[in-house]
Amino acid sequence: MTNLHYLMTSARSTVRDTVDKLTSELRHVNLALHGNPEIAFQEFAAHDTIANFLEGLGFDVRRSAYGLATSFEVEFGTGGSLVVFCAEYDALPGIGHGCGHNLIATSSIAAFLATVEALKRSGRPGRVRLLGTPAEEAGGGKAKLLDAGAFPKDTAAAIMAHPMCARQIFYDVSQGYQGLAALKFIATHLFKTEFHGKAAHAAAEPWNGVNAFDAAVAAYSDVALLRQHIQPEDRVHAVMEVGGTVPNVIPEYTRGTWMVRSPTIERANRLLERVKACIQAGASATGCQVTYQETRSPSYLNLTANKTLSEVYVEEMAANGQKVMLQQEKPMNASTDMGNVAHSFPTFHGAFIVPAGADVTLHSSDFAEAAGTEAAHTVALHTAKGMAMLAVRVLLDADIARNAKRDFRDNHDW
Fold this sequence. Notes:
The protein is α/β, with parallel strands linked by helices and 414 residues long. It has two domains: 3-185 and 303-410, Aminopeptidase (3-Layer(aba) Sandwich); 187-293, Alpha-Beta Plaits (2-Layer Sandwich), CATH 3.30.70.360. The chain has 13 helices and twelve strands. The protein has helices at residues 3-21, 23-34, 44-56, 101-122, 141-147, 166-169, 212-226, 265-286, 307-319, 338-342, 365-371, 374-396, 398-410; strands at residues 62-63, 72-78, 82-87, 126-132, 155-164, 179-182, 187-196, 235-242, 253-262, 289-293, 324-327, 347-353. The longest helix has 23 residues, at 374-396. It is elongated and about 85 Å long. The mean pLDDT is 96.
């Protein structure tokens, strides 16, 4: 038996034992997050819950890291390469953890702790970091952390996994897959529009008004016409947050939020220009002025997959008795700020299946309920074991790290 083979065999045992021993404590963290959902950049209780838990285990936690009040960072090890686990914990307004971010945090925390223990016992150089990444749903926390240097240049891999419903990622759920390695998402632009007109009495002298509501309706109608001529994978959606005050006053101001999505950021950029042309047409037709208001969220790049990291994860999950599909036929029509990380470093973003009814979907109260179950917790910890072993192999097997870097450089669209 080679030294490397012995190291990995020993690491698998350590990873499993570590996660199993922490199951109850991790469940308390999971339930604390699930029972107190917090929206983007307001995840103060989640931040403190996780930081307190890690400090109780003897770790030195950097709170409010990189200028974000609800981010944190904890690291173990010296020398060698660095692997970063990303922990999400923000929720959706009015729905709670309808995207299951309590499970993402739980699986990443467990994977970090298991990797730490395996690294300790190996006696080898290497560093593993757990990074708290707020505001994935709206705000682009990872993109902001990326800009702030939370992912150093020597990052060998960034790792996380997302809970999903089986029917949303598998065309044939009867095959019994329990997860997916190479999850792919599309790119998105998020922006706000403001139409500025002139108020007037809507009955007495409407000709003296400039109707900002008409501008918004015209813009939306033009985009609706555009939809016939965009690719099937493209998406444009909007809501009007301010549409006027009372019907007998010509609205002088309206505001809307728009999302433009496409499989790649290059295609999203081109579609954005077409959408903006429709918006400008609405303004021109009604005599209004249109301005674009900044949002807190940067654009989300499309999430790409790393072939080497995905293949290693499938192997390690199989060693743990879990059947995981390697890759999808096409990207899922959703977006994440982990895409920004994937365009900068070798990245693994898998998916694990949460037991739920056949009609349950993400971003729903039903999924939020499923995300709090014991069954979902168990699946998250199975995933943590696979992610931990993926990290261990990146840190201790130079060929894995080298191949992941090569795939990032030469095969980025795999």
